[in-house]
């Protein structure tokens, strides 16, 4: 038996999001709302629009039954939060992680709305997932779970409604199963229902690396903005998955010295620089980082406090908190993960003069290449990897320049500036459409 229900947007059935176990951190929703309220004071946006944007349009909560390989049945809970679609279909990833809950999905879907607007993509914000540890399931079990999840979400997704994509714990194969299940239900092949698929079924070249590539591009621009040379820059990166590993490999290619990387079990550190190309990514082999040769190992807390030029948290949320923000040794933080910095930590970084380049700009390459994939699916045409990367570079530089000009002209933090760019575009779209409330 499955249960579908549409929760009130603010409803929550679990106390925390996918975070460290630090006790005093806020949920993604609380942080997203505080960030919105703060940034709105710098934007010329109607207060009613701001109030509306604190709430999602809807949150679908579904039960996802799974027959385990041993024949027993377990029922997992899945969610899809659809925050705002004034600029286009809801867009955002599906996360498989034990801490997934309604409140986390709402906060993450709000960040997707701003992210798509900062990048000037014709999408709104969505996010979802299943509260499950994918490492505890076999590949066959993940396939059955994903197919059932696609069936449960069938009525609310689609290429012009809501287009999921990979996030933590999901990948191109997950998207292929989702797309196949949806297409079978609809009776025709519909590649554009999800992005982040393998290229052979309508996926885009370069999507897997894209959030790491954009994080590297924005790091490069930020380092240059602050008058530094990338070849004299040391970098520490928490998380060695789609975002962290790809950012590490590119930054190393471009001359930076990556001194420390981590996975769920901890970090390796070499002050002279690691050979990051040889370290298997989460996708290639999960939990492999600590098996590599390196002079030192560190905990996932210690990597955040290393004396480096740039820190890139690229794993989970709420790792930079009021408890450790004073001890962060980096001169610049670039958010590869979604929501790694709490509201309180942001204030401490601002006071200390440590710039934080926000997630909604830095890791936006993922959704940007998802947009390219959606275009390729509609047009039934595949772009080359070079075309994708050239377009991505150009979209990232446009967004960087839009945000930088707000930073410089209004003396804002990078996060406030990115929000101002996003909010202005969203408010203008609402005004022109006459959508109210
Ligand atoms: N994938 C995408 O398209 C995008 C993802 N993001 C965000 O980036 C972040 C990472 O996502 P993604 O790279 O896709 O995830 P992946 O699942 O590809 O990789 C996650 C990495 O983080 C490590 N990790 C997991 N839990 C912890 C922990 N508690 N402490 C330290 N490291 C941990 C994993 O270790 P191990 O290998 O040992 O499991 C793995 O190396 C998330 O916040 C996600 O929302 C943002 C934009 C786009
Ligand atoms: O590619 C997408 O649609 C969304 C990626 C995502 O979930 C994110 O940027 O956080």
From TrEMBL:
Residues at the catalytic site: 127
Domain of life: Archaea
Keyword set, alphabetical order: Oxidoreductase
Site (Important for catalysis): 167
Any Pfam family the entry gives: ELFV_dehydrog
PROSITE patterns, alphabetized: GLFV_DEHYDROGENASE (PS00074)
Domain Glutamate/phenylalanine/leucine/valine/L-tryptophan dehydrogenase C-terminal: 204-434
InterPro entries for this protein: Aminoacid_DH-like_N_sf (IPR046346), Glu/Leu/Phe/Val/Trp_DH (IPR006095), Glu/Leu/Phe/Val/Trp_DH_C (IPR006096), Glu/Leu/Phe/Val/Trp_DH_dimer (IPR006097), Glu/Leu/Phe/Val_DH_AS (IPR033524), Glu_DH (IPR014362), GluDhGdhB (IPR054867), NAD(P)-bd_dom_sf (IPR036291)
Biological-process GO terms, alphabetical: L-glutamate catabolic process
Positions of the UniProt region annotated as Disordered: 1-24
Record GO terms (molecular function): glutamate dehydrogenase (NAD+) activity
CDD domains linked: NAD_bind_1_Glu_DH
Assembly with partners or alone: Homohexamer.
Family stated for the protein in its record: Belongs to the Glu/Leu/Phe/Val dehydrogenases family.
The protein, known as: Glutamate dehydrogenase
Highest classification ranks of the organism: Archaea, Methanobacteriati, Methanobacteriota, Stenosarchaea group, Halobacteria
